[in-house]
Amino acid sequence: MIDALVPRAEDYDEIAALLALAFHGGVDPELLEVERGVFEPDRSLLVRDGGTAVAHAAAFSRDLAVPGASVPAAHVTMVSVAPTHRRRGLLTGLMRRQLREVRDAGREPLAVLWASEGRIYPRFGYGLAAQRLVLAGDTHGLRLPDPAPAEGTLRLARPAPHRAELARLYERVRADRPGWSGRNERWWDYVLADVKGLRGGATERRVLLHEGPDGLDGYALYRTKEEWAGTGPRAEVQVGEVVAARPQAYLALWRLLLSIDLTRRVSFPIAAVDEPLFRLVDEPRQLGAQLADALWVRVVDVPAALAARRYATDVDVVVEVTDDLLPENGGRWRLVGGPSGAECAATTAPAGLACDVRALGELYLGGAGLAALAAAGRVRELVPGTVAATAPAFGWYRAPAPMEVF
């Protein structure tokens, strides 16, 4: 274990300065106050050298939507090492200690994070569990289906007065999308904060509300950014999030977002890999989608994690797991489950599959295919036919997707 201290709340300014140094940014006083609202000092680890902060790692206490359930997950964040203290084992020590503390606390069977670089976290057992599509496309001439009669009404507003409505709808839709994190009051403060220094020349954030027969059933948070070319207007619509409980609301929101006067481009950096928009527009290539990584999951407690989610089909399989950092996860585990629930317990029965804990993290949200991992040699089939019999269970009817970077 490294000699790291649990910081005080008043140490956040120094931690923010370290993060700015590591990620090549500045310290915005307005953003600092927003971030201070979600900082959990008791879940942070700070390394000092001669009184100066040189390394840090933290976690947020949030729930994560997983296939068929919502599970407490350590949302790992603010990981940084000063340039002067690289290659000294500080990152390794912080990540190992953090995982051990999460495991020993016994509250969260998972840890989840966004990776600044994909090569960093697999050595700590994190697997790429959810990808995203980054949209940056031309909306000129893009067509959507015609509106249906009486599909609802749209209203444009500032987000803050509608916060309670947005929160209720978000939580309702979250249950159906693995990868979305829970938001308490502090997190809604954070999400709706409109820090001027982060606008990049764009407008303040706006919310587009869709009212259906039973009230609010969709919203979109977005900005616009002015631009003019010699041939005329080229403004951009910058979409932050789109939440819809009905297809009619989803279509109506995007119809307006893609047709705002004087705009010719759209950006949406966190589209799902199964984003319905691609099945609606007449020329999906025009959206300019690029695949990127999103959520990395680390299974901290194998039996608790596997029993917490649901499975698309009935499954009864023994998996032999290796975990160099948390040896309690090692061994053979029998998973018996299906759409209504699951159980997982240690067993001495022969294993049908074998993998490391990283592969379990990749499988956990239902986005990575078991067959693909087996084809890559990341999962070994010990009993012929086990992959084919088990793969459908680990999938899910909706792809996992992120909602915000934390």
UniProtKB/TrEMBL annotation:
Pfam families: Acetyltransf_17, Acetyltransf_9, SCP2_2. Keywords: Acyltransferase, Transferase. Residues 1-149 form the N-acetyltransferase domain. Gene3D superfamilies: 3.40.630.30, SCP2 sterol-binding domain. NCBIfam families: PRK01346.1-4. Belongs to the acetyltransferase Eis family. This is GNAT family N-acetyltransferase. It comes from Micromonospora fulviviridis.
